[in-house]
Every structure is written in C-alpha cells, then in structure tokens.
Amino acid sequence: MIGLYRELRRRGVLGLNARNGTYILPSNDRRHYPLVDDKLRTKRLALEAGMPVPELYGEIATEREIKRLGEMLEPHEAFVIKPACGSGGDGIVVVQGRMYGRRTQFRQASGALVSLETLQHHVSNMLNGQFSLGGHPDRAMIEYCVHFDPVFDDVCFQGVPDVRVIVYRGFPVMAMLRLPTRQSGGRANLHQGAIGAGIDVASGHTLRGVLGTEVVDQHPDTGRAIAGVAIPEWDFLMRSAARCAELTGLGYLGVDMVLDRELGPLILELNARPGLNIQIANGRGLALRLEHVEAAAPADADAERRVQWSMEAFAHDGGR
Amino acid sequence: MRNRHLIGLVVVLTLLSVGVFAYKVWALGFPLQPDSTTDTWTVEAAVSFEAGRGAVKVNLFVPSLTPGFRIVSENFISRGFGFTTQLAPGGREAEWSVREAPGRQTLYYRAQVIRDSGARGEDTTPEFPTAPILEEPYATAMRMLIDQVREQSADTGSFAANLMRRLNEASPDQNVALFREGIATPLDMAQTASQLLAGARIPTRVIRGVLLQEQQRDAEMLAYLEVYDGNEWLHFNPMTGERGLPENFLTWWRGTRPMLQLEGGRDAGVTISVRRNTVDALQVAELRAEQRGSRLVEFSPLSLPIQTQALYSLLLLIPIGALVIAFLRNVVGFKTFGTFMPVLIALAFKETQLVSGLVLFSLIVSLGLLVRFYLEHLKLLLVPRLAAVLIVVVLLMLAVSIVSNRLAIDVGLSIALFPMVIIAMTIERMSIVWEERGAAEAIQQGLGSLLVAAVAYLVMGVAYIQHLSFVFPELMFLVLAVTLLLGRYTGYRLLELRRFRALVRDGS
Questions:
Q1: What is the per-residue pLDDT across B452-476, written as a single tens digit (0 to 9) for each?
Q2: Burial class (CB in 10 A: 0-12, 13-18, 19+), A75
Q3: Cβ contact, residue pair A13, B500, below 8 Å
Q4: Which domains does chain A carry?
Q5: Which of A292, B26, B144, B265 has the fewest CB atoms within 10 Å distance of its CB?
C-alpha cells in the first residue's frame, strides 16, 4: 500500500485532498464561483466576450412560468433542459424530437418518451433546488441541443460528446473527450458511466479511454477504437479554454466545450471543481503538469502564447 | 505562511489541552480510568475521662499541617462543652471546657483525610539550639559519642542516621549504655537523640502521628524525629536511624508535649481509631481541587446540574464523532449521505445498540424509499414531498415500535430515538442518487454512511473515551487541533490508491 502511495506520488497523480487544498482553495476566489456555478451567468459572460455558446431558448424562474413551458418549447424540435446551478450533470434532460403527430410527447436522447406534464414536474423540482448545490432554489434553462460533429459518429452512443480542458493559471494543462454510453443515458459525465478519452494536448488526437476507473480501448456500445480520433479545430478549442480563465478569474478551472455539426465549437459550461479521472484517461498525473506551470510558465502571456507554451510543454510523448 | 499560522495554532491548542489535562491528572488526581475509586480515611480521637466536681478543661492536639494528606472535613463532638480551636506551639489544639460535668465523659474528634501530594508541612528555618548542659559522666560520654559519630559521617543527615544507629546497637558500648538507661518507648529514644543532636548544635523536633491503615481500633501514636540539615527537614525513625516517613504517616502534632492535657478530671485516655473508605475518585479529586482553591472545577462540566451533565456527557462525544467522520472521509475516502448524518445515527445507536440499530435503520430507510418511489409518480412539489416523506417516516417508526412491542422485542421501541428529519432527508437524497446515478451508487453510498456511523458509534462507545471527554473537556482542544491538521492533509485518500491504480499499472 505504501509502495502504491509512493508510486502515485512519483507519477505526480493529483488526489482529491491535494486538488482541493493545494490548488482550488488558494487559486479560486470564492466570489468568482457564482460565475461558473450558475450556467446562465456563464453563458452571458461568454457572449459578452464574443465566444460561441449554445443558444438560450428560454429561462424559467418561477412556478407560474412553468405553465408556459409548452409554449416555450413549441418552436423547437430538439432542446436541452438543465438546472442553472446543477452539478455533476444531474437533472439534465435532452430531448431530440417529438412523437409523430403528438406535440406533447417528447423523445429523449435515450429513446424514451416523456410527456409535457413530466417535464413540467421536472422543472418544478429544479426550481425547488433538488439538483442544485446545497438545495438552494434554482432556475431552469432551455437551450439549443447540440448536433455533434460526424467525426464522433463511431465512438459515441446517443447524447453529445464534449471536450473537457483543465486550465491552470490560464494554461491548458490536460484535456479529455467525454463520450456518452448507453449506461450514462446519453450524458457526458464520467461518474454517470460516460467514457473519458485522453487527448494529446499538442495534436488534439485522442488517446486511450477510461470507464469508471478502468482503462478501455474500445467504445462498449459501438465497438470502435477510442484512440486516434482527431478533434477538429483543436487550436481554437485550446484558445477558448485559455480565455475562459481570464473571463472568470478562476485559477483552476475545467472548461467543457462541444463541437456542433453546423456551428462549430461552443462553450457549454465551466467547472470550478473538475474531476480527477482525466488523469487515468491520459495516463498522466496532473500534479506534475501543475507544478511545471508554476515553475516554468511565462508570465503575462496572452491566450495565444499560453496555448503554444502548453502544447510544447505537455505533448503526450513529452514524458510529462 | 498559512501553514506556519496553522502549526502555531495547533501547537497552542495542544499545549493548552495537554497542560490543563496534565495538571488535573497529576496535581488534582482526576482519575484517568472510568469508575476508578480512591482511598479516604476517617480518623477519630476519642477522649474519655472521669470529671471532677469543678470546672473541666480539656486540651487535645488535632492535626493541622499534614504533609502528603489533606483534611477535607472535621467534626468535634461534645455534649454541653464549650469548644474552641487554637494554634499552639507544635500544632493546633482543640479546647473543650465546661463549668460542671460530673461522671464519665467522652469527647470525639473526627476527620476525613484524603491523600494529596501537594500538601506540605511548614518550612520555617529553626534557630540553632544551645548545647545542653549535662552532669558528668553524661557530658563526657556525649562529647565522645559525638566525636566518634562525626568521624564516620559526611553531613548532617548521615550524622543523625549514624547517631541513631549507635543508640540502637544490640551491644552498646559504655558511652551509649549511659544514655540507653531508662529508654522504654520510641518517644524516649527520640528525645534522647534530640538531646544528643542538640549537643552537636543540630536543630531537631519530635513529630507525632499515626499510620493510616485498613482498620485500626486503637492506633499507636508514633514518634519520629525531624532533623534540620540547614536546608530542609529530614525525617528519621528513632529506633533504626532509617531515613524518611512511612508513606501512610499522618502527622498529628510536633514536639514532646503530651497529646492530651486535662484540668479538673482524672483517668484520662485517648483512643485513636482509623478506618479506610473507598469512594469515587472523581469526588475526591473535586474535593481536593476545592480545598486548594482551584477554579478549574468550578468551570468544568462537573459543576453543572446532574441532568445537564448527562446531556453534556453525550454532547462532548460529538466532537469525537466529527473527528472520526473527517478522518474517514478525507483520509480513507468514504462517501456518505450528508456530512454529519452518520454522527447523529451513531448517537441513536447508543440507545438501540449496534446490530439492532443497523437493522432498524436499514428497515426504515428501505420502507421509506419504497414510499418515496411511489410519491414520485404523484408529481409533488419538493417541499410538500419532503414533508410527506417525513410524515411517513414517523408513522413507520410508530408502526415498527407497535409491532415489535407485540412481538415482545424490546429493542424495536428504541427506534423512536432515531433522528427522523435526518432519516427523511437521507431517504430523499438516496432516491435522487438512485434515479440520477443508478441503484449501485445509491446503495454504495448508503452502506458507506452506515459503515461510517458504525465506526463512529464504536469509537464514541469506548467507555474510556466517554470518561476522558467528559472529565477532561479540555481534550476537545486537542481534538480541534487534530481536526485542523486534517484540514491541511493533501495526501491521497486510501480509496484513491484503488481508484488510480490503473495509472501505476501501465508502463509509461
């Protein structure tokens, strides 16, 4: 056990205690949290900075407005309903279409049908804080449902894959592609059963995957190899992630982005407490990279320059 | 910077905690073990005499300075006598007096004595005595004896010891034999030794007292010799020359005056009896602190009303439980429903016992979950739904109590002590995890919570820990210090070693 402990240390694997105590607490000022915990504010922030986000269809803040949900959804065939302050992907409903001829029966990403009444109840639960951190009253947001880029057709089952980039002091340090599975119900959260595939920061090519805490090479539903997928517009994704650090003022940040078939890269949400399984997916420890940023990263560099530095410093075959 | 501040705080808290703790244990004798007992003695002096026709006055020495012991209470029992106590040369005197009291009279002095290493005798520096003026042949014998003994001694202590050894030799030489004439009791021996030591200009005094033993009806009043070596008083057994007082020696008075002086009566006698009692060590420690004027006990939970004490003996376990939780979550890495829910469950387990507590808790939560899943179909708003779950939990608890009472299973009745609001919230959160993340995750977290509660229960149930946390609440500062240190633990959690083992396995 002590040997295992030492070995993890040697490889620079970041544990939860160290993530919270050494990186999140000192570098993330608590007053900046609402910017990322409230997805509506994040969206506004990104729009003001001229960064692409999925279009907001509507927002529900009170029980009275729930009655207008059907009306609000009427012009849209596909949409996503999420709690503005949800965490870990809880409470998100992805609707990809409707049952033919019946406007109040919605087809979810998983294929299951859901009625308008059920959706309204779900939204009510959101407003009451069932999915928010600490059970605080919340708002529901309805937004554009991303149609993912065909490059992911083979390695994705339902849902929308997204790209997670960990940004430390403005430098993108590690990245991962999150692939929904049958088990995750179309959602891209690892603890719900999605696959995380490491990404070579330098090239934007996927590496191996992780399911739970185990390494996997093939997608369990499609059977295709996970490694070797080239993610389009990788430089743009990296630059967007790097800019989010300035936008929010957070020193340690997870940036979630998606690639839409027509709209290209969109910023989905930001996370002040990104998970640690990204290390297993990349086969690399985060602590080594974070320490390297502290020790060697150039000061006062702009996003462009920071991305360049990261790509050189953290190339997968670079050994760090 | 932050770390140095924290370490400083931890050190201060630890020193404060350990310091007060050590003082209470060593100086005040607070017991470290639960239910420990200690000895106290009841010492009684009974004076009896035949009173004459006129006024009667009785003077009796009573203990005043008692090194190693402390008198916690005293009684003077005398019917019809006037009574005062006063300081007298050599100690303290009780004086009884009456105008007229014909016939046989008995007066009592009774004292409760506890051991107290902090109690000391007086420490005055005596004057050098003048050498006694003796007739021949005694004067020459004394000179020779003193010269002989002085040759064999290094200091005052060994001089006194050697002298007494010489006086007690089995076959005394001529000089010693002169002084041995007429010596019958240890008191005589002490007086003779005292005289000879005065010849060497060494201050001495006779010290009288009794041995505190199991049970003595007529305890002997012993005599020891105190010798001043220029720095402190040394004690000697005049019959052997042995250094030091016996451990159980209660000093009664000093000097050669008799214990009892009677005017206006005859046939006077004093009987001293000793009885040992075994009492709660905690009570004795409190008495001792009170006698010393220590404020610590006045500001401790022991000063509270009994009912409040019972409450705090429970409440003071919560910091221990919280520390266990912090350890199991941040060092081991268990996940639980609600941060401190397991502590409250563990407190409830104290009433139900562990196994039946676990069974009852699982029963209530499972039944509650079934109802919660049913309520899900009704599409209720959040707060009324929580209220509904709470109501159902209370009804379920009542039902379990009634059924188990019917079946004559007593333990089912104690289910009423479960924190129902906490259980209702647990059910709600468990059902959400169940729906959002699947049954496996929900059951895993549920079992994790129960396991943590069981561990907290076992730790909080250790009689030793219960005793320490209540009698020494200052140890809570130590618990706080450890908790603060845990707050800066940035190493891996035990379960993370398992989680990240895939990272170690591959060669890269």
A1: 999 999 999 888 898 899 889 999 9
A2: exposed
A3: yes
A4: 2-52+148-318 (3.30.470.20), 56-144 (3.30.1490)
A5: B26
